[in-house]
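Title: Comparing notes on inverse folding

I've been comparing how different people in this forum approach sequence design from structure. To keep things fair, I'm posting one structure and asking everyone to reply with a full sequence. Here's the target:
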């Protein structure tokens, strides 16, 4: 056999380098694809875990408040907080509620809306942003009155805060008041307190800048109060059936909204004792006429 090297077909060095580079490229491509798959799986697991945790916290929150709604019903015909006249269509058992949490100062309900929660009050405006009525840490928090309100519901304006949850929990459903039709369906709420029950006759819903102080707690004069109410109603997202006059007590419901950075939505109403609710429509009409004069 002739082993003449001139007849051989050797692989040139340049070709070897190209083959090595091709193999390396294929190796890194496979590694990249595998890493991408693993990263996608990791993100799926993490997001699934986060959603599961969020759902668990939601369930924890809703179960707690569902139980409270049932346990706090008190059908006694008399007792602390009974309105004059003795007629209460619905009564909350505040002895039970305050035994569970002494920070409980009220209960607010919007008929045919998701709003049906206790209202808490403590010496700061941070704790109940991340804690339930029970004291358990939970991002849903609970509704709470401003710590600057020292005379709850006897101050000229009591402010109540709550999160704007995507599932309409807490104050998420307040967003409905950006439409006139929603207001027409839900023009009032009910506030239960240990000292008496009130209808909240809603007057305005306004977009506010959270970077500045936009809510008033007290007023220097009757003119100051009237000017405040007129300012709110002139900017309101709905037209109310009534107004407020000096001497009325206000309740302001405040939550986040997202039209702009750090925006707030403020729904303001006046307190009307439930014992006077029979005359509510007539008074509202008179006050609306007075406001137009």
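Reply #1:
Here's my take.
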């Amino acid at each position: 056999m002739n082993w003449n090297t001139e007849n051989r077909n050797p692989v040139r060095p340049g070709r070897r380098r190209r083959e090595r580079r091709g193999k390396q490229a294929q190796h890194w491509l496979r590694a990249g694809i595998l890493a991408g798959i693993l990263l996608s799986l990791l993100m799926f697991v993490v997001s699934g875990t986060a959603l599961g945790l969020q759902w668990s916290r939601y369930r924890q929150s809703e179960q707690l408040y569902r139980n409270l709604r049932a346990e706090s019903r008190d059908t006694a015909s008399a007792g602390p907080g009974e309105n004059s006249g003795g007629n209460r269509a619905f009564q909350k058992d505040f002895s039970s509620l305050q035994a569970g949490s002494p920070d409980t100062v009220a209960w607010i309900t919007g008929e045919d809306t998701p709003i049906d929660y206790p209202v808490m009050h403590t010496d700061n405006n941070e704790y109940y942003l991340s804690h339930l009525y029970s004291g358990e840490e939970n991002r849903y928090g609970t509704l709470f009155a401003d710590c600057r309100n020292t005379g709850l519901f006897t101050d000229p304006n009591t402010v109540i805060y709550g999160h704007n949850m995507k599932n309409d929990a807490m104050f998420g459903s307040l967003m409905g008041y950006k439409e006139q039709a929603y207001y027409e369906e839900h023009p009032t709420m009910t506030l239960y307190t240990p000292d008496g029950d009130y209808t909240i006759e809603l007057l305005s819903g306004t977009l506010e800048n959270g970077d500045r102080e936009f809510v008033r707690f007290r007023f220097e004069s009757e003119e100051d109060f009237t000017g405040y109410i007129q300012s709110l109603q002139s900017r309101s997202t709905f037209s109310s059936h009534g107004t407020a006059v000096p001497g009325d007590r206000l309740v302001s419901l405040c939550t986040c909204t997202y039209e702009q950075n750090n925006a707030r939505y403020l729904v303001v109403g006046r307190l009307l004792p439930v014992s006077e609710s029979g005359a509510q429509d007539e008074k509202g009409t008179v006050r609306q006429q007075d406001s137009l004069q």
